[in-house]
Amino acid sequence: MSRKKVVVALGHRALGTTLPEQYKATKKTAKILANLVEAGADIVISHSNAPQVGMIHTAMNEFGASREEYTQAPMSVCSAMSQGYIGYDLQNALRAELLKRGIYRPICTILTQVMVDPYDDAFTEPVKVIGRLLTKEEAEEEEKKGNFVTEVEGGYRRIVAAPKPQGIIEIDSIRELSDKGQIVIACGGGGIPVLAQGVELRGASAVIEKDYASGRMAELLNADEFMILTSVEHVSIGYNTDHEIPLGRISVDEAKEYIEQDQFEPNTMLPKIEAGVSFLEKGTGRKVVITSIDKALEGFLEKTGTIIE
Prior knowledge:
The protein has 309 residues and is α/β, with parallel strands linked by helices. A hairpin with a 7-residue loop joins strand 13 (236-237) and strand 14 (245-246). It has helices at residues 19-38, 50-66, 75-100, 136-144, 171-179, 210-220, 252-260, 269-281, 296-300, and strands spanning 4-10, 41-47, 107-109, 113-116, 128-134, 148-152, 155-160, 165-168, 183-185, 192-197, 200-203, 225-230, 236-237, 245-246, 249-250, 287-292, 306-308. The chain has an 8-stranded mixed β-sheet with strand order 3-9-2-1-12-16-17-15, sandwiched between helices. A 4-stranded mixed β-sheet has the order 8-4-10-11.
Protein backbone atom coordinates (compact mmCIF):
# COMPACT_ATOMS: atom_id res chain seq x y z
CA MET A 1 0.00 0.00 0.00
CA SER A 2 1.50 3.32 -1.05
CA ARG A 3 1.28 5.98 1.60
CA LYS A 4 0.26 9.61 1.13
CA LYS A 5 1.56 12.68 2.93
CA VAL A 6 -1.57 14.42 4.21
CA VAL A 7 -1.83 17.72 6.07
CA VAL A 8 -4.92 17.48 8.28
CA ALA A 9 -6.44 20.74 9.55
CA LEU A 10 -8.60 20.25 12.63
CA GLY A 11 -11.37 22.69 13.51
CA HIS A 12 -12.79 23.70 16.88
CA ARG A 13 -15.07 20.64 17.02
CA ALA A 14 -12.02 18.38 17.27
CA LEU A 15 -10.73 20.10 20.40
CA GLY A 16 -13.57 21.39 22.58
CA THR A 17 -13.34 24.61 24.55
CA THR A 18 -12.53 24.09 28.24
CA LEU A 19 -9.68 21.97 29.60
CA PRO A 20 -11.95 19.00 30.48
CA GLU A 21 -13.73 19.28 27.12
CA GLN A 22 -10.40 19.33 25.29
CA TYR A 23 -9.13 16.26 27.13
CA LYS A 24 -12.23 14.29 26.08
CA ALA A 25 -12.39 15.71 22.56
CA THR A 26 -8.77 14.90 21.74
CA LYS A 27 -9.32 11.25 22.70
CA LYS A 28 -12.16 11.03 20.19
CA THR A 29 -10.15 12.92 17.58
CA ALA A 30 -7.19 10.59 18.14
CA LYS A 31 -9.32 7.62 17.02
CA ILE A 32 -10.22 9.47 13.82
CA LEU A 33 -6.60 10.38 13.11
CA ALA A 34 -5.46 6.83 13.86
CA ASN A 35 -7.95 5.58 11.26
CA LEU A 36 -6.22 7.78 8.69
CA VAL A 37 -2.80 6.45 9.66
CA GLU A 38 -4.04 2.87 9.33
CA ALA A 39 -5.53 3.70 5.92
CA GLY A 40 -2.15 4.87 4.57
CA ALA A 41 -1.85 8.53 5.48
CA ASP A 42 1.40 9.99 6.80
CA ILE A 43 -0.21 12.89 8.61
CA VAL A 44 0.96 16.32 9.62
CA ILE A 45 -1.63 17.91 11.89
CA SER A 46 -2.65 21.53 12.30
CA HIS A 47 -5.49 22.80 14.46
CA SER A 48 -7.58 25.78 15.47
CA ASN A 49 -7.11 27.49 18.84
CA ALA A 50 -9.72 30.28 19.03
CA PRO A 51 -11.37 29.38 22.36
CA GLN A 52 -8.07 28.34 23.92
CA VAL A 53 -6.03 31.40 22.97
CA GLY A 54 -8.91 33.65 24.03
CA MET A 55 -9.02 31.96 27.42
CA ILE A 56 -5.25 32.26 27.86
CA HIS A 57 -5.21 35.92 26.76
CA THR A 58 -7.99 36.80 29.18
CA ALA A 59 -6.46 34.87 32.07
CA MET A 60 -2.94 36.24 31.62
CA ASN A 61 -4.05 39.82 31.21
CA GLU A 62 -6.49 39.71 34.11
CA PHE A 63 -3.72 38.31 36.27
CA GLY A 64 -1.22 40.91 35.08
CA ALA A 65 -3.68 43.74 35.63
CA SER A 66 -4.41 42.70 39.21
CA ARG A 67 -0.79 42.11 40.31
CA GLU A 68 1.79 44.83 39.85
CA GLU A 69 4.70 42.40 39.98
CA TYR A 70 3.50 40.59 36.82
CA THR A 71 3.19 41.84 33.26
CA GLN A 72 0.39 41.21 30.80
CA ALA A 73 1.01 38.73 27.97
CA PRO A 74 1.12 39.75 24.29
CA MET A 75 -0.87 37.80 21.70
CA SER A 76 2.23 36.03 20.37
CA VAL A 77 2.99 34.58 23.81
CA CYS A 78 -0.64 33.52 24.29
CA SER A 79 -0.56 31.81 20.91
CA ALA A 80 2.59 29.91 21.85
CA MET A 81 0.96 28.78 25.10
CA SER A 82 -2.11 27.54 23.24
CA GLN A 83 0.02 25.55 20.80
CA GLY A 84 1.79 23.90 23.71
CA TYR A 85 -1.19 22.82 25.73
CA ILE A 86 -3.33 21.72 22.78
CA GLY A 87 -0.38 19.78 21.38
CA TYR A 88 0.20 18.16 24.78
CA ASP A 89 -3.30 16.67 24.90
CA LEU A 90 -3.44 15.81 21.21
CA GLN A 91 -0.06 14.08 20.93
CA ASN A 92 -0.62 12.03 24.07
CA ALA A 93 -4.11 10.96 22.99
CA LEU A 94 -2.90 9.97 19.53
CA ARG A 95 0.16 8.15 20.87
CA ALA A 96 -2.03 6.08 23.20
CA GLU A 97 -4.57 5.29 20.46
CA LEU A 98 -1.90 4.13 18.01
CA LEU A 99 -0.20 1.97 20.64
CA LYS A 100 -3.55 0.28 21.37
CA ARG A 101 -3.59 -0.68 17.69
CA GLY A 102 -0.04 -1.98 17.73
CA ILE A 103 1.35 1.03 15.85
CA TYR A 104 4.41 2.89 17.11
CA ARG A 105 4.91 6.31 15.55
CA PRO A 106 6.81 9.07 17.32
CA ILE A 107 4.62 12.17 17.71
CA CYS A 108 5.75 15.69 18.50
CA THR A 109 4.39 19.21 18.69
CA ILE A 110 6.43 22.02 17.18
CA LEU A 111 5.87 25.57 18.38
CA THR A 112 5.53 27.16 14.97
CA GLN A 113 6.23 30.75 13.98
CA VAL A 114 4.70 32.08 10.78
CA MET A 115 6.11 35.09 8.98
CA VAL A 116 3.70 37.87 8.07
CA ASP A 117 4.11 40.99 5.97
CA PRO A 118 4.20 44.20 8.08
CA TYR A 119 2.57 46.00 5.13
CA ASP A 120 -0.33 43.57 4.90
CA ASP A 121 -3.55 45.59 4.61
CA ALA A 122 -4.98 43.49 7.44
CA PHE A 123 -2.97 45.53 9.95
CA THR A 124 -5.01 48.62 9.10
CA GLU A 125 -8.31 46.73 9.18
CA PRO A 126 -8.26 44.41 12.22
CA VAL A 127 -11.22 42.01 12.38
CA LYS A 128 -10.52 39.33 14.99
CA VAL A 129 -12.14 40.02 18.38
CA ILE A 130 -10.13 38.80 21.37
CA GLY A 131 -10.02 39.05 25.14
CA ARG A 132 -12.51 40.06 27.78
CA LEU A 133 -15.05 42.86 27.90
CA LEU A 134 -13.41 46.23 28.60
CA THR A 135 -14.73 49.41 30.17
CA LYS A 136 -14.49 52.67 28.24
CA GLU A 137 -11.50 53.72 30.34
CA GLU A 138 -9.70 50.42 29.71
CA ALA A 139 -10.48 50.67 25.98
CA GLU A 140 -8.95 54.13 25.88
CA GLU A 141 -5.83 52.82 27.60
CA GLU A 142 -5.53 50.08 24.96
CA GLU A 143 -5.81 52.67 22.21
CA LYS A 144 -3.04 54.73 23.85
CA LYS A 145 -0.83 51.63 23.55
CA GLY A 146 -1.56 51.51 19.81
CA ASN A 147 -4.07 48.67 20.02
CA PHE A 148 -7.44 48.61 18.28
CA VAL A 149 -10.76 48.24 20.12
CA THR A 150 -14.36 47.92 19.03
CA GLU A 151 -17.57 48.71 20.84
CA VAL A 152 -19.74 45.69 21.59
CA GLU A 153 -22.81 45.07 23.71
CA GLY A 154 -21.93 45.94 27.30
CA GLY A 155 -18.59 47.60 26.63
CA TYR A 156 -15.53 47.24 24.38
CA ARG A 157 -13.18 44.48 23.22
CA ARG A 158 -9.81 44.41 21.53
CA ILE A 159 -9.56 43.51 17.87
CA VAL A 160 -6.43 42.32 16.10
CA ALA A 161 -5.35 41.88 12.49
CA ALA A 162 -5.54 38.62 10.55
CA PRO A 163 -2.67 38.87 8.02
CA LYS A 164 -1.96 36.19 5.41
CA PRO A 165 0.92 33.77 6.13
CA GLN A 166 4.08 34.27 4.09
CA GLY A 167 6.58 31.69 5.33
CA ILE A 168 6.85 29.11 8.10
CA ILE A 169 10.02 29.51 10.17
CA GLU A 170 10.18 25.90 11.39
CA ILE A 171 9.23 24.28 8.05
CA ASP A 172 12.58 22.50 7.67
CA SER A 173 12.17 20.84 11.07
CA ILE A 174 8.58 19.87 10.28
CA ARG A 175 9.66 18.38 6.93
CA GLU A 176 12.64 16.51 8.40
CA LEU A 177 10.57 14.90 11.15
CA SER A 178 7.71 14.04 8.82
CA ASP A 179 10.02 12.53 6.22
CA LYS A 180 11.55 10.34 8.95
CA GLY A 181 8.14 8.86 9.80
CA GLN A 182 7.13 11.04 12.74
CA ILE A 183 3.67 12.53 13.16
CA VAL A 184 4.04 16.27 13.58
CA ILE A 185 1.58 18.74 15.10
CA ALA A 186 2.43 22.19 13.79
CA CYS A 187 1.02 25.61 12.84
CA GLY A 188 -1.44 25.39 15.72
CA GLY A 189 -3.94 28.24 15.60
CA GLY A 190 -2.40 29.45 12.36
CA GLY A 191 1.03 29.71 13.96
CA ILE A 192 2.61 32.49 16.01
CA PRO A 193 2.65 35.54 13.71
CA VAL A 194 6.10 37.12 13.59
CA LEU A 195 7.84 39.99 11.84
CA ALA A 196 11.52 39.95 10.86
CA GLN A 197 13.70 42.67 12.40
CA GLY A 198 17.23 41.98 11.25
CA VAL A 199 18.11 38.55 12.60
CA GLU A 200 15.43 38.79 15.27
CA LEU A 201 11.81 37.68 15.05
CA ARG A 202 9.25 39.86 16.79
CA GLY A 203 5.77 38.66 17.67
CA ALA A 204 2.99 40.55 15.90
CA SER A 205 -0.26 41.59 17.56
CA ALA A 206 -2.32 39.46 15.21
CA VAL A 207 -3.81 36.06 14.58
CA ILE A 208 -3.46 34.04 11.39
CA GLU A 209 -6.40 32.17 9.90
CA LYS A 210 -5.70 28.50 10.59
CA ASP A 211 -6.77 27.29 7.14
CA TYR A 212 -4.43 29.66 5.29
CA ALA A 213 -1.46 28.62 7.44
CA SER A 214 -2.34 24.94 7.08
CA GLY A 215 -2.59 25.27 3.31
CA ARG A 216 0.74 27.07 3.21
CA MET A 217 2.32 24.27 5.23
CA ALA A 218 0.84 21.68 2.86
CA GLU A 219 2.33 23.61 -0.08
CA LEU A 220 5.81 23.82 1.47
CA LEU A 221 5.78 20.13 2.43
CA ASN A 222 4.66 19.18 -1.10
CA ALA A 223 1.89 17.13 0.48
CA ASP A 224 -0.23 14.80 -1.63
CA GLU A 225 -3.40 15.90 0.08
CA PHE A 226 -4.76 18.74 2.17
CA MET A 227 -7.65 17.60 4.34
CA ILE A 228 -9.80 20.16 6.17
CA LEU A 229 -12.04 18.65 8.84
CA THR A 230 -14.92 20.87 9.82
CA SER A 231 -18.55 20.65 10.98
CA VAL A 232 -20.23 19.79 7.65
CA GLU A 233 -19.90 16.74 5.43
CA HIS A 234 -19.90 18.78 2.21
CA VAL A 235 -19.24 22.34 1.18
CA SER A 236 -22.44 23.80 -0.26
CA ILE A 237 -23.37 26.58 -2.60
CA GLY A 238 -26.56 28.46 -1.79
CA TYR A 239 -25.86 27.60 1.84
CA ASN A 240 -28.83 28.01 4.19
CA THR A 241 -31.22 28.77 1.32
CA ASP A 242 -33.94 26.81 -0.45
CA HIS A 243 -31.46 26.26 -3.27
CA GLU A 244 -28.61 24.76 -1.24
CA ILE A 245 -26.53 22.28 -3.26
CA PRO A 246 -23.81 20.15 -1.63
CA LEU A 247 -20.64 19.91 -3.70
CA GLY A 248 -18.99 16.58 -4.40
CA ARG A 249 -16.00 16.48 -6.74
CA ILE A 250 -15.18 19.84 -8.33
CA SER A 251 -12.29 21.38 -10.26
CA VAL A 252 -10.10 24.29 -9.25
CA ASP A 253 -11.77 26.41 -11.93
CA GLU A 254 -15.21 25.60 -10.53
CA ALA A 255 -14.04 26.47 -7.02
CA LYS A 256 -12.69 29.83 -8.25
CA GLU A 257 -15.95 30.53 -10.05
CA TYR A 258 -17.92 29.91 -6.84
CA ILE A 259 -15.55 32.26 -5.00
CA GLU A 260 -16.27 34.96 -7.59
CA GLN A 261 -19.99 34.39 -7.01
CA ASP A 262 -19.56 34.98 -3.25
CA GLN A 263 -20.93 31.51 -2.53
CA PHE A 264 -18.83 31.04 0.62
CA GLU A 265 -19.16 32.80 3.98
CA PRO A 266 -16.07 35.02 4.43
CA ASN A 267 -15.20 33.99 8.00
CA THR A 268 -15.91 30.26 7.78
CA MET A 269 -15.85 28.44 4.44
CA LEU A 270 -14.11 30.98 2.19
CA PRO A 271 -10.66 30.64 3.83
CA LYS A 272 -10.89 26.86 3.43
CA ILE A 273 -11.68 27.07 -0.27
CA GLU A 274 -9.06 29.76 -0.94
CA ALA A 275 -6.39 27.82 0.96
CA GLY A 276 -7.29 24.67 -0.95
CA VAL A 277 -7.13 26.39 -4.33
CA SER A 278 -3.75 27.93 -3.52
CA PHE A 279 -2.39 24.52 -2.49
CA LEU A 280 -3.59 22.90 -5.71
CA GLU A 281 -2.28 25.65 -7.97
CA LYS A 282 1.25 25.37 -6.59
CA GLY A 283 1.76 21.70 -7.44
CA THR A 284 0.56 18.75 -9.51
CA GLY A 285 -1.20 15.52 -8.57
CA ARG A 286 -2.59 17.10 -5.40
CA LYS A 287 -6.02 16.83 -3.83
CA VAL A 288 -8.09 18.78 -1.30
CA VAL A 289 -10.78 17.12 0.80
CA ILE A 290 -13.20 19.12 2.94
CA THR A 291 -15.58 17.16 5.14
CA SER A 292 -16.78 16.70 8.70
CA ILE A 293 -14.44 15.24 11.26
CA ASP A 294 -16.76 12.25 11.74
CA LYS A 295 -16.41 11.45 8.03
CA ALA A 296 -12.64 11.86 7.84
CA LEU A 297 -11.86 8.28 6.83
CA GLU A 298 -14.62 8.21 4.22
CA GLY A 299 -13.29 11.52 2.89
CA PHE A 300 -9.75 10.16 2.66
CA LEU A 301 -11.12 7.13 0.76
CA GLU A 302 -13.02 9.56 -1.52
CA LYS A 303 -16.42 8.18 -0.53
CA THR A 304 -17.78 11.51 0.73
CA GLY A 305 -16.91 15.14 1.27
CA THR A 306 -16.10 17.92 -1.18
CA ILE A 307 -13.06 16.98 -3.24
CA ILE A 308 -11.21 19.63 -5.22
CA GLU A 309 -8.57 18.56 -7.73
